[in-house]
Amino acid sequence: MNIILLGAPGSGKGTQSVLINKNFGLVQLSTGEIIRENIEKKTKLGLQVQNIVDKGEFVSDDIILDIISVRILEDDCKKGFVLDGFPRNLNQATKFDELLIKYKKKIDFVIELSVSFDDLYKRIENRAIESNEARADDKKEILENRLKIYENQTRPLVPYYKKSNLHYEINGMKTVKEISNDINNILDFKKNDV
Q1: Domain containing residue 35
Q2: Using an 8 Å Cβ cutoff, are 105 and 80 in contact?
Q3: What are the angstrom distances between the C-alpha of 11 and each of 33, 126, 143?
Q4: Do the strands 27-30 and 81-84 form a parallel or antiparallel pair, or are they unpaired?
C-alpha cells in the first residue's frame, strides 16, 4: 500500500505519516526530513540545498525526484510507503507517475489534510513553543512564503488526483487522534481493494 499525504506546511503530514507507519507498517518518506538530515550531516546534497531551505524555498524537482526514485526501491519500501511532502507540484507528480510505471508500482491513496491558513500560524507557533526551538522554516515570514508557494504549486495536485479517484480529503484541524482515526478508517475500509 503506497500513500501520498497532501497538505500545507504545518498541516500535520509528518505526524500522521509516523502514525500510518506505526499502524500499518509502511515506511515514512519525508523529503523534508531527508533534506534536513543531509543538511545536518553536511553531505553533498545538504550543502547544495542549505541556502534554498533557509530562504523557505523548495528544492528543485530534479533533486527531489532523484531522492525519491532511489528511496522507493530500497528493501524496506517493499511493503509500502507514505510520501510526506512529495510531490509538491504537477511536474513532480507527472514525472513520478512515469517512474511508478517504470518500476511497476502505484499509488493507492492520496490523503489531503485540509487546513485553515490562519489556524496554521497558531499551530506553527505552538510547535516552536512546545519544542523550545523554532525550525528555520517555522518563522512567520518564511511560513507565509511557503504557504503562497503551496497555494500556487501544490494545491493544483488536488484536482489532478481527484481525476484518478485516489483522493480523500480529511479535516486537518481536528485533533491528531481524530485525524489518525479518519485516515485509519479510509485505509482499513479500502485496503482490501488495493
Answers
A1: 3-193
A2: no
A3: 15, 13, 12
A4: parallel
CATH of the domain at 139: 3.40.50.300
Please name the residue that has the C-alpha cell 512515469: 98
Long-range contacts of 89-92 (CB under 8 A, 24+ apart): 89/61, 89/153, 89/154, 89/156, 89/157, 90/153, 90/156, 90/157, 90/160, 91/61, 92/61, 92/64, 92/65
Q: How far apart are CA 146 and CA 58, in angstroms?
A: 8
Q: What is the DSSP string of 85-114?
A: S---SHHHHHHHHHHHHHTT----EEEEEE
Specify the pLDDT at position 136: 54
The β-bridge partners of 109 are: 3
Q: pTM of the entire structure?
A: 0.81
> How many domains, in total, are found in the chain?
1
Which residues of the chain, if any, have pLDDT below 70? 127-129, 131-139, 190-194
pLDDT tens profile 82-101: 999 899 899 999 999 999 99
Residue 181's alpha-carbon distances to 126, 175, 176, 184, 186, in angstroms, are 23, 10, 9, 5, 9
pLDDT score for 131: 64
Torsion angle of the four alpha carbons 161, 17, 82, 66, in this order, in degrees rounded to the nearest 10 = 100
